[in-house]
Design brief:
The structure holds two protein chains of two kinds.
Chain A: E1 4-5, E2 10-14, E3 19-25, E4 32-38, E5 45-51, E6 56-59, E7 62-67, E8 72-77, E9 86-93, E10 102-104, E11 108-113
Parallel strand pairs in A: 2-11
Antiparallel strand pairs in A: 1-3, 3-8, 4-5, 4-9, 6-7, 7-8, 9-10, 9-11
Chain B: E1 5-7, E2 10-13, E3 19-24, E4 31-38, E5 42-50, E6 53-57, E7 64-68, E8 74-78, E9 87-94, E10 105-106, E11 110-114
Parallel strand pairs in B: 2-11
Antiparallel strand pairs in B: 1-3, 3-8, 4-5, 4-9, 5-6, 7-8, 9-10, 9-11
């Protein structure tokens, strides 16, 4: 049972435009959501996180939106740059007795074309 | 501030052998988690340690084990290696749940190849 889903395996955008990556989840007990960027054969790079008590968090070009009623979150990258090309993972943390376990989506490959 | 470090970066082992991977968390981080990444399964949670205690364990066989030391460094061990254990093993650290803003950082990973 996949609790975190990224339904778009890939996304292609033009440099300077907005990239929107989506993520859906099923477990309403998740209390934090995180976005990571990953290159092949490297560890995921933390980008931004959001608490379940908020609906928006911004950090530079990255903004994450959370819609709890729809169990949906999205990552907006504005403006997109060629260096943003990578696989993006959405992850969720559940209040499982204090554990830091993250549940990951399968990832979305973003390609930003010059 | 140094990030999460993992050693070794690459390993080649044969079936039936065992392997030990090491992870040093970011200074001040007390929680260390391990994940396995494979092309087919994505990132799968192995286990998490906090203050030398295992707090959570994923759905992996008992051949996978780990531990954490008093300085928060962690090791994971895989015994009786199988071909299917070939993967990128990732370690992540965080300060734990006493923070309003939550962040979890990953190391570069250890690429294990079983032949």
């Amino acid at each position: 049972d996949q609790q975190v889903k990224q339904n778009s395996p890939s996304l292609s955008v033009q440099e300077g435009r907005i990239s929107i990556l989506n993520c859906d989840y099923t477990n309403s007990m998740f209390d934090y959501f995180l976005w990571y960027k990953k290159y092949p054969a490297e560890g995921p790079t933390f980008l931004i996180s959001i608490s379940s008590i908020k609906d928006k968090n911004e950090d530079g070009r990255f903004t994450v939106f959370l819609n709890k009623s729809a169990k949906h979150l999205s990552l907006h990258i504005v403006p997109s740059q060629p260096g943003d090309s990578a696989v993006y993972f959405c992850a969720a943390r559940g209040p499982q007795g204090g554990s830091e376990k993250l549940v990951f989506g399968k990832g979305t490959k973003l390609t930003v074309n010059p | 501030k140094a990030g999460v470090t993992q050693t070794p970066r690459y390993l080649i082992k044969t079936r039936g052998q065992q392997v030990t991977l090491s992870c040093s968390p970011i200074s001040g981080h007390r929680s260390v988690s391990w994940y396995q990444q494979t092309p087919g399964q994505g990132l799968q949670f192995l286990f998490e340690y906090f203050s030398e205690t295992q707090r959570n364990k994923g759905n992996f066989p008992g051949r996978f084990s780990g531990r954490q030391f008093s300085n928060s460094r962690s090791e994971m061990n895989v015994s009786t290696l199988e071909l299917g254990d070939s993967a990128l093993y990732l370690c992540a650290s965080s300060k734990g749940r006493d923070r309003v803003v939550y962040e979890q950082y990953f190391g570069p990973g250890t690429r294990l190849t079983v032949t």
